[in-house]
Amino acid sequence: MKLMSSLVMIMSLLALPVVAEAKIAGIAAEINHMQGVTNQTIVAKKGVVKEAVAKDKAVNETSKATKAKSTSSKVNINTANVEQLQQLKGVGEKKAQAIVAYRKQHGNFKSIDQLAEVKGIGPKLLQKNKGALTLK
Predict the structure, then answer these.
(1) Does the global pTM surpass 0.85?
(2) Which three-class secondary structure state does DSSP give residue 37?
(3) 54: pLDDT strictly greater than 60
(4) In which domain, by residue range, is 26 found?
(5) 33 Cβ contact partners less than 8 Å away, ≥ 6 residues apart
């Protein structure tokens, strides 16, 4: 049972962008001690953990860069397709489809605030995305 909780703790630490190496080494040592494994295995596990942490950091940085890039260019609500509308914060496939359907039925949006007339688009969602929206 204690081994299981230690493994869960290691897995949760790996999910963090920055991991305290000493904490991981201590947990690995505890697991190895409980299993009667040598110190060489601890060193090997630390190397694996370092590699996993480095990969996790790289994924986090790529994700941040992609998100920044997707929100840095404005989305034209009069021409954007469903996929492009999904780049907006809080807009999934259903809301994006509702925006396109509204536009087809009522014509181009005259103002960004008119987007609030679309079912599922409230003032909070509109406010979160106002800086990322354009009509041109």
Answers:
(1) no
(2) coil
(3) yes
(4) 2-69
(5) none
